[in-house]
Every structure is written in structure tokens, then in C-alpha cells.
């Protein structure tokens, strides 16, 4: 074995539907009365450590929905036993969860206020390790659908070259991407996931003058709009898919990741684009009712029932 890393679970599967590449985090959630201004300190209320990260959330939700899923990520030696068990007991293919020696597991420090404001500080940890590490070859080669989420753009360019994949840089689009590597990954993708804020940066990085021109690079854009629903955008036009009713609001952490899992659960079952987005909206509505990125795991039966309540 190459010095500097080890696998969380050596076993592997060769017939996964989905491979998710990205972060597995420890989410550290701080409840504040208000954000501090420059030169000021504030007290924090509750501080919680929760499982999170784009790849972790998408993969766990997908596995819960019955999607055969592999996960590819880098974590540190401090990755806690409860989080390890969560991954290993979920039915995920964890062969490409790489534990990097001497590194910390990535952390997302999330700051909330009572009026719904939220901001983040990312500690990359193992995901920014300079060590030469595996590029999740097993997850990629053993899966029919590849989802490229947050992480090092240059590693992703090497890892998924020549394969079809969905591109989903998330909040990291604002600080980890250059016009060059963004366009390389966008041009190689067959689907681009984004939201309203990230879309502005995508237009800037790509040099596109409109969202429909941006879609010409990758075929289809799925843009989530929060309470307004989701838009499907192609070079030929756009379709708005309405949101799904939420019974109660707990928090929105990981709602976008849950959306993606719902989308892939419908895709695995052979549904078309708009129906997949409807299922994504339905899964996001379930996620908002629980706390944390994986606080509302659901099976496909529950997801289908929620979908029927709004779309059938």
C-alpha cells in the first residue's frame, strides 16, 4: 500500500448506479443571536457536531432511497467512529473513502441566526492534502452515473476525463475555480447542478452571456430556486418545476444534497428529466423537516408518497 493513506473499507462493488465524488465533513453548527461586525465578538449558543459534506449527504440519502451508490472522498485520521459506522452500515460502497494519514477530516463551520441568516467557513483538511492519493478509480469505473461535487478541480479533471458525469461544484465555485478549469469540467459534463447564487459565478467563469448559452456547454442545467422550485434549462428553453409542500421547517442544511439524491432515485427507476426533478423537489421538502444534512433519511416509499401529494 502506498504510504500516507489507507482505505476505510477494502471491499468494492462493480455494479453501482451512482458514484458521488466530494466532501465528507464534520459539520460544526453554531447558533448565534447575530453575526459579529468587524472587531466585535459574540457568544454562541448551542454548538453541534453533525455528519455532513456534499458527497456524504448525497450518498447517504441515495443509499437510503435504494440507489446502489459508491462514494469517493478523502477524510482524516480523526474521522469519528460513529460517522464511520454510519457510512459502513448504510450499504454504500466505501472502497474509495480514503483516510489520509496526518490530516484532519474536513469541517464545515456553519453559523445560524434566529432570523434565518446562515454563513459558512470551510476547513478543507484531507480534501486539500498535497499527498498523491487515489482518484477514486473503483467508484468511477464501477458506476454507470458519476456525480462530481465539491473538491479539487484539477483532481477531478484527471479523474473523470473521457467519462460522462454531472458537474456540481456548489459553493466552492466562488473560490476554488478558475475560468480554465471550470470550462474544462463544464464542457465535459452532460448535466450541471447549480442554484441562483452559484449561477452568477458560473456565468462569469464561463464567459456566457445567458443561462441558455451556458447550457449549450453541458446540455442541461438544473437550477434549484429554494421555495420557488427548480428550473430545467437547455439551449432551447427552460421549464419551471414547482416546489413540493413542506409540513414543517427545521433547517435547510443539506436540502440541496437531498434534492440530488431524490433526482437520482427517480433516474435509477427510468424516469425522465422533469419527473426526476419533481422527485428531487419532494426529497428536498422531506430534508427540510429534519435537522442536519442527513436528519431526514427516507426510503423510496416515503419519497414516492411525498411526490404523489404534490405532483401526481
Explain what the structure shows.
Strand 10, helix 5 (179-188) and strand 11 form a beta-alpha-beta unit. Helix 4 runs parallel beside helix 5, helix 8 packs antiparallel against helix 9 (273-288) and helix 9 (273-288) crosses helix 10. The chain is built from ten helices and 14 strands. Helices cover 33% and strands 26% of the residues. Strands 1-6-5-2-9-10-11-12-13-14 form a ten-stranded mixed β-sheet. By secondary structure, the protein is of the alpha/beta class. It is globular, with a radius of gyration of 19 Å.
Which SSEs are present, and which pair or pack?
Blueprint: E1 5-7, E2 16-21, E3 25-32, E4 44-52, H1 54-64, E5 69-76, H2 81-88, E6 93-100, E7 107-112, E8 118-123, H3 137-141, E9 143-148, H4 153-160, E10 166-167, H5 179-188, E11 191-195, H6 196-206, H7 211-218, E12 221-224, E13 230-234, E14 237-241, H8 255-268, H9 273-288, H10 300-311
Parallel strand pairs: 2-5, 2-9, 3-7, 5-6, 9-10, 10-11, 11-12
Antiparallel strand pairs: 1-6, 3-4, 7-8, 12-13, 13-14
Amino acid at each position: 500500500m502506498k504510504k500516507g493513506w489507507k482505505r476505510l473499507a477494502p471491499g468494492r462493488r462493480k455494479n453501482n448506479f451512482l458514484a458521488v465524488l466530494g466532501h465528507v465533513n464534520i459539520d460544526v453548527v453554531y447558533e448565534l443571536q447575530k453575526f459579529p461586525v468587524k472587531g466585535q465578538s459574540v457568544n454562541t449558543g448551542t454548538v453541534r457536531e453533525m455528519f455532513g459534506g456534499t458527497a456524504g449527504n448525497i450518498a447517504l440519502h441515495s443509499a437510503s432511497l435504494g440507489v446502489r451508490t459508491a462514494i469517493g472522498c478523502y477524510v482524516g485520521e480523526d474521522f469519528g467512529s460513529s460517522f464511520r459506522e454510519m457510512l459502513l452500515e448504510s450499504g454504500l460502497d466505501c472502497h474509495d473513502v480514503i483516510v489520509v494519514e496526518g490530516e484532519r477530516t474536513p469541517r464545515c463551520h456553519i453559523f445560524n441566526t434566529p432570523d434565518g441568516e446562515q454563513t459558512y467557513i470551510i476547513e478543507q483538511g484531507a480534501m486539500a492534502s498535497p499527498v498523491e492519493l487515489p482518484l477514486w478509480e473503483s467508484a468511477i469505473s464501477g458506476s454507470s452515473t458519476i456525480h462530481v461535487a465539491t473538491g479539487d478541480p484539477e483532481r477531478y479533471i484527471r479523474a473523470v476525463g473521457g467519462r460522462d458525469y454531472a458537474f456540481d461544484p456548489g459553493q466552492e465555485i466562488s473560490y476554488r475555480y478558475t475560468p480554465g478549469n471550470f470550462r474544462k469540467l463544464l464542457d465535459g459534463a452532460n448535466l450541471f447542478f447549480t442554484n441562483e447564487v452559484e449561477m452568477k459565478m458560473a456565468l462569469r467563469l464561463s464567459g456566457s452571456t445567458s443561462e441558455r448559452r451556458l447550457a449549450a456547454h453541458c446540455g442541461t442545467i438544473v437550477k434549484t430556486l429554494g421555495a420557488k422550485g427548480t428550473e430545467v434549462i437547455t439551449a432551447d428553453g427552460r421549464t419551471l418545476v414547482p416546489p413540493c409542500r413542506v409540513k414543517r421547517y427545521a433547517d435547510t442544511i443539506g436540502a440541496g444534497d437531498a434534492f440530488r439524491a431524490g433526482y437520482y432515485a427517480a433516474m435509477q427507476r427510468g424516469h425522465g428529466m422533469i419527473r426526476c426533478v419533481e422527485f428531487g423537489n419532494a426529497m428536498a421538502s422531506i430534508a427540510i423537516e429534519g435537522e442536519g444534512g442527513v436528519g431526514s433519511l427516507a426510503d423510496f416509499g416515503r419519497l414516492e408518497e411525498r411526490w404523489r401529494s404534490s405532483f401526481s
